Amino acid sequence: MVRQVGAVLVVVMALGGCATEKTSSEQLARVAKDWSLSIRASQVIPVYPLTEDVQPGDVFLVQTPVEEQVKIYMDKGFLPLENLLTRLPVTGYAELYRGWPRVGDGEAAPPRQWQFPNPDATEPDFSRAPLAAFPTYKFSVSRSSGLSVAIPVQSVPVGLNLLDSASANGTITLKDAYTYAVPARKTYDAILSWSRANIGYLEQFEPAAATQDGKSTTKAFYLRVINRVYLVKTVDVSLFSNRGFGASGSAGVPQPVQLLNIANASDAANQFDAINQILAKASSPVGAGNAAAAGSVGEAPAPVAVGGSVKLAMATSRSVSFVETFHRPLVIGYLASDYAILKGGRLATPVPTLNTLEGHPVPASRAIAYQGCDANCLQIRGWLKAPGTKAKLEDWLQAQGGAISISDLETGDHADLRQRVVKELIEGSN
Amino acid sequence: MALQPPSPQTSVPRDDTGNVVDAMLLDARVKWIAIVFEATAADGVDRFTVTPYVEDPTTGG
Q1: CB contacts, 8 Å: B4 with chain A
Q2: DSSP character at residue A92
Q3: What's the half-sphere exposure (Cβ side, CA atoms, 13 Å) at A146?
Q4: Which residues of A touch B19 (CB under 8 A)?
Q5: A66 close contact with B: CB closer than 8 A
Q6: Rounded to whole angstroms, how far apart are CA atoms A180 and A166?
Q7: Could you give the CA distance from residue A406 to residue B20 in angstroms, rounded to a whole number?
């Protein structure tokens, strides 16, 4: 009985985030990356941490250069969502989901009618949302990793404590997954309209000259517009202890809790019930400690606990399985389009974010707006007609940061570079 | 390190489309170029999007 109370105490500590071990940022990053890589393997850009508040039409200002984004994406496995600029009033759901029950534009636009089926509803109803499925995700976790901090589902640290194990292997199955989208063509129209109304704001993010590693380059900014999101309501977590049999038998060391002792079925059932009651209290939206306060008239509702409700589903001396259910489905990933912000705050043509990040071939590279052929452009065109000048210009461009093409140089947004070409190559050779 | 492939250019006026195509074809990797009419601007000038491809856009090869 003492052992059981001890185990329960450890569970509650884990839920409260009171891990006493020193957290290891490397381990935390590793867990975040493992999670994100599994989502990414499904050709979805992971959201980390999980959130309900991302939806198609959300516009983020990305101030990280593409090269740096790729590096972050590869290193961390996910991209932090930077500044949320606006939520576009997108339409097109009715057309895209023609015949789909309860999906339309305006008030019927997803996900509100699934999150809040009617004004008085306390329970969400995603039964009519388009379904999605994800493969099972395998991971390794150790107690020294800081437990409850980085893992998107709280079942993992709880399970690790129940197993009384320093490390474990596990699987996460994403169940009750949903997806919905708005046509990229509609978000394109909406972002263009928004950008025209906010061109003064966007102008401050036009490409700026910068120096990197001694080379002059251009710092570009982007708008990232979400087109599709993926949500998950239920997560099954199974953990298998790495502890060897008999490894914890020394005197004075707490013994593993025998949660499922088939020889005594009633004891096992009681232990399951006791643990699930404590898990329910610790993860309920209104914790036991503030339930009374929440009930007071005129007071703000108590804060909702992070994560969902956790229920122990199965346990042996070396493994535990949990079912974790979020109160409402959370967004775990998205698909989006990137729009480069050009000179004057205009937007370039969209490029799928995933293509940018994973280096997938894009039919054409990022489009630029024709800037006209100025005096330097005309001079370069004339000079290029002479033999040997093309190779000379290519060598010069390669020596510059970015190594842009000749056609981009001539009529793209590169007035400074054209000026330098004229000075250093054309006039310098006379 | 090779230069980046030419970028597609939008809003290219009719009278400079040929020059832009010329400049794109200076890159030997460019094998196809699409010229798509955008609109006639308020000043009466026809504008085009000029898109270079290093792979056959119809077959991907």
Answers
A1: 365, 402-405, 408
A2: -
A3: 15
A4: 373, 381, 410-411
A5: no
A6: 40
A7: 10
Q: What is the DSSP letter of A314?
A: E
pTM above 0.80, yes or no: no
Residues of chain B with pLDDT below 70 are: 1-2, 55-61
Instruction: Give the Cα separation of A394 and A409 in Å (integer).
Output: 11
Pair A167, A143: CB distance under 8 Å: yes
* Three-state secondary-structure class, residue A402: coil
Choose among B1, B10, B20: nearest Cβ to A407: B20
**Average model confidence (pLDDT) for chain A?**
74
Task: Note the pLDDT tens digit of each residue in A180-237.
Answer: 999 888 898 899 899 989 999 999 988 777 766 666 666 778 899 999 999 999 888 8
Q: List chain B residues with CB under 8 Å of A349.
A: 8, 10
Distance CA A120, CA A134 (A): 32
The model's confidence at residue A251, banded by pLDDT at 50, 70 and 90, is: very low
ipTM reported for the complex, 2 dp: 0.93
d(CA A268, CA A149): 30
Tokens 């202890």 correspond to what residue?
A241
Q: How far is B44 from chain A (nearest CA, A)?
A: 16
Hey, what are B51's tokens? 């898109």
Name which of A325, A326, A301 is nearest A311 in CA terms: A325
Q: Which residue is closest to B22 within chain A, CA to CA?
A: A407
Q: Judge: B16–A411 Cβ closer than 8 Å, yes or no.
A: yes
The answer to whether the beta carbons of residues A240 and A318 sit under 8 Å apart is: yes
Q: Does B17 touch chain A (CB under 8 A)?
A: no
Q: Identify any residues that bridge with A304 across adjacent strands, giving them in sequence order.
A: none
Residues in CB range of A316: below 8 A, 6 or more apart: A259, A260
